Fold:
Amino acid sequence: MLLMIVVVMTLVQVQIKWLVHGDVLFSTAFRTTFSVSFNG
Structure:
């Protein structure tokens, strides 16, 4: 459980970096992958 939280927090930080850099392509790809992984 704790490991999962750490992984999510790390992914969120990466997402924020992508948003700051305005990389729409990678941002969209990340959200799609995260949604699939989270729901799956």
